Amino acid sequence: MNGDSFKRCRICGKKIGIITQGIYRKVVVDVDPVEVIADADGMTFIRIDGSKVTAREATRFDDNALEAEWAYRPHRRSCEVRG
CA-based Rg of the chain, rounded to a whole angstrom? Predict the structure, then answer.
């Protein structure tokens, strides 16, 4: 993410980041990265290079911490619409 790609969500007001995925596609993500471990039954996360990874969030009790990587949560999942 570039330094100028941090903005605020128009709906909830949280800080969001914009990651370029491919030539003309941009993905909106939460600013704070999370440590994830690849898992076929997990959720979709976005890496810093824009690629997707299906994973679950790592906890401090995970034994396979060497396989963990940092990724971003897509913002649409965490945006709370104010009604």
Answer: 14
Parse the chain into domains and list their residue ranges: 3-77
Q: What is the pLDDT of residues 66-78, one digit of tens each?
A: 788 999 999 876 5
Q: What is the 3-state secondary structure (H, E, C) of 20-51?
A: ECCCCCEEEEECCCEEEEEEEEEEEEECCCCC
Of the CA atoms within 13 Å of residue 54, those in its CB half-sphere come to 4
Best CA proximity match to 69, nearest among 45, 41, 37, 28? 37
Q: 3-10 long-range CB contacts below 8 Å, 24 or more apart? A: 6/31, 9/75, 9/79
The model's pTM is 0.78
How far apart (Å, rounded) are the C-alpha atoms in residues 61 and 28? 30
